[in-house]
Amino acid sequence: MKTMTIARAINEGLRATLASDPKSFIMGEDIGALGGVYRVTEGLAAEFGGHRVMDTPLAESGIIGTAIGMALRGHRPICEIQFDGFVFPGFNQITTQLAKIHTRSDGQLSAPVVIRIPYGGGIGSIEHHSESPEALFAHTAGLRIITPSNANDAYWMIQQAVACKDPVIVFEPKRRYWLKGEVDTENSPGDPFKAHVLREGTDATIVAYGPLVPVALAAANAAAEDGHSVEVIDLRSISPIDFDTVEASVNKTGRLVVAHEAPIFGGIGGEIASRMSERCFYSLEAPAIRVGGFHMPYPVARVEEHYLPDIDRMLEALDRAFAY
Amino acid sequence: MNTSGHGTSGVGASRPDAGTSAGVLRANVVGETDMVQLLDAHGKRHEEATFGPYIDALDAQTVRGFYRDMATVRRFDTEATALQRQGELALWVPVVGQEAAQIGSGSAMRSADYAFPTYREHGVALTRGLDLADLLKLFRGISNGGWDPREKNFHLYTLVLAAQTLHAVGYAMGIQRDLIAEPATEPAAVMAYFGDGASSEGDVHESMVFAASYNAPVVFFCQNNNWAISVPFEVQSKIPLVNRAGGYGIPGIRVDGNDVLAVYAVTKWALDYARDGHGPVLIEASTYRVGAHTTADDPTKYRPNAEEEAWKAKDPLERMERYLRAEGLADDAFFEQVKNDDDELAAHVRSATLALGGADIRQKFATVYAEAHPLVAEELAWFENYQASFADAETPQGGAA
């Protein structure tokens, strides 16, 4: 076991991938000498060379589009998009091309491109630097989307993403890059597309992922002081979603709160709530309640604290669920 | 570093002299009529120092083959158009008028080279050795592809304009990596096809930036057919597109796209240049889409008849036939044989298309992801149960399941 930050864990995961898979390489803006704006790729260019850690022209469609071509040739590109809000120039290549190659070729071709996107708010930045666009990609069949919430998952998930035959987007919770945790570099946590029950409980379930997982755990601790036993699930995978793990939990607790930073409307929370209403109708003691962002562009930093779900927002949602 | 207003003399030449005067800039703009041509509209061969030798090196059979392939794809096009009109295809994308640009460029490729087509490269597909009937699976609506791109190094058609130009550059960068990792890798280059309409898309720009930055072995082959559906070329660019090459620091060649010999020669030059490690080349083939953009539009609504007639006079097949006859390279028997063979091919395409039948949505469930996916599995299971419910309902009456 080693203790490291999430950023460091991804760095180590990338290092392990580059060392073990000669076809793998990283491409993106400012990832070489600078080591990425968040220093996630720090030291990798010096260790593996510019050929394996490639600074690209400043062009997101170009990054994704050329990565597709290189994957078609048998290489394993790992693309870094600098910030969530800058993925949109590459959106066309991701959704109309990358996601569809396997099905368009009747299963003959695949483009196992990995796209790393730092996402989410809470860093006091300016516009386009704090968005949570995961639902836009999750709606597109052909993509897989995972998001680590802790260092151990961060270390393993990036490697598992590269090993996957499908394109995988790894949304990295940027405000948790400096969150430390233990990493077991010997034993993988298993299937990256499975949810983890992080805290057992009997009265209600909170489902969260990425940056809100620590918030959900803190809310569950606070609820325990009020005598409520709250189970916390780290979803880990946004596409596919491990509905079975959520279902088992909801059947046990009878109450569900789903939390994410992205706007509630049309978001992942609605998908989970709807599925659980179908699967657990007779177990539910209350309607599934969603906690998330408002229907507005991510607000300016001076008011983002009112936008981001915090412990109190989750406790308020739990209160509403317990009121039934 | 384009051909700079002096025919072909600028190919491979150094950057134009530094200078900012309008005169210097104008001098480096390729003019409307300035392009490589080896065979004029009358079918008369012209000598040309840089590209002529590529044709001189060919045997008569190969030169006749250019005509044969152009005639084949034209006949194929006629048959596919008829199939669309008869309701057998959802849509067809005619290629008539552009046969020389496609047969010439496709024939210049080696088998290890890889082509990324748009959705109109039926002629290139022929030169790669595809069964043309496979192209119709997409247009019949039974597949989004229709062939294994790796068999003939001919990628799937791409309907999102210009997206494939980036894939082409990435593939070329992959070739570079393979050569570094395994020097025994066969050197290869990539052809990136796009049209004048697509040239306005940002992906074309980004692909040229990437290709130039990494010296990728890719040849950008723009078929400027003068119309982006109903919008004339002037809306895409004020000057020939080849002039953009200089902005990326790569060679540009403008070629008469209705002259199969010239297209073959400049493409061969460009592919050799790219394969030899010198980096990308932009070729602009000046040609004309004689028919509609697709069977869904009507050119009489947007372009003058006189323009079409003027371009028909530059027909690539008639030009080549005159040349072959004048040079004694082909006789009546040859042309008769081509016609008979093409009728046979058309019959094959027709029967193969009609035999394609429908599609099974289960195959679509199976190919969304390369690895197992629980949501797809769940929805497929639901679908199978739903389908089975109809069979159960009919079975007691002894009806067809």
From TrEMBL, chain A:
Cofactor(s) for this UniProt protein: thiamine diphosphate
This protein's name: 3-methyl-2-oxobutanoate dehydrogenase (2-methylpropanoyl-transferring)
Recorded GO MF terms: branched-chain 2-oxo acid dehydrogenase activity; magnesium ion binding
Gene3D superfamilies given in the database record: 3.40.50.920, 3.40.50.970
InterPro entries hit by this protein: THDP-binding, Transketo_C/PFOR_II, Transketolase-like_Pyr-bd, Transketolase_C
E.C. no: 1.2.4.4
Keywords associated with the record: Oxidoreductase
Species for this entry: Arthrobacter alpinus
Uppermost EC category: oxidoreductase
GO biological-process terms attached to the record: branched-chain amino acid catabolic process; response to nutrient
SMART domains to which the protein is assigned, alphabetical: Transket_pyr
Pfam families registered for this protein in UniProt: Transket_pyr, Transketolase_C
